Amino acid sequence: MQLDKLVHFHKALGDPTRIRIVTLLKQGPLHGQAIANKLGLKPPTITHHVAKLRDIGLVYQRRDRNTIYFYLDHKKLEFNANAILKIGEETKVTQEMKVEEKDKLSIIKNFFDADGTLKQIPSQQKKKLVALAYMIRQLEPGKTYNEKEINEYIKQYHGDFATIRREWVMHHFMYRENGQYELNPKEMWPVIF
Fold this sequence. Notes:
Blueprint: H1 3-13, H2 16-26, E1 30-31, H3 32-39, H4 43-55, E2 59-64, E3 67-72, H5 74-83, H6 89-111, H7 125-136, E4 144-146, H8 147-155, H9 161-170, E5 174-177, E6 180-183
Antiparallel strand pairs: 1-3, 2-3, 4-6, 5-6
Helix pairs in contact: 3-4, 6-7, 8-9
């Protein structure tokens, strides 16, 4: 949520009369005269405060014959009230994702040559999973591969195709049955970082 919208929302609610109107409307829709009577205020005062609440989208109105009823947008109230607790989370998540992506790219750069071949299979689990995910990215989901096809595919990255193939199966990147290989859904892949 944009910070200026959040500030505008809280400024509009920063009045005891408006908070009391919101409290009344939480119980159900009311017309202006009913709100005025319950709060002991004049109808023009209620009109002024309801207009401020309408400006931020917290209150909307519906006409029933000659009477206008005001309704509280409960979802908008809840969203805006909780939004202040989420300030900074988006930035934090984005920053964490950027760091993770940089780390993954660094691992790929360190373990793969410019032509895309794997220099060596990383011994550290985290780095190995990044390398395995990088190598498997061009296989097609839903397609079944025989062992020879998988071996040929792996050879473009590394000569030890048996180890890579075994690692893919062990870490649930792939499923193997009767010499046939198929990618598992990404939800089954290990969480990398």
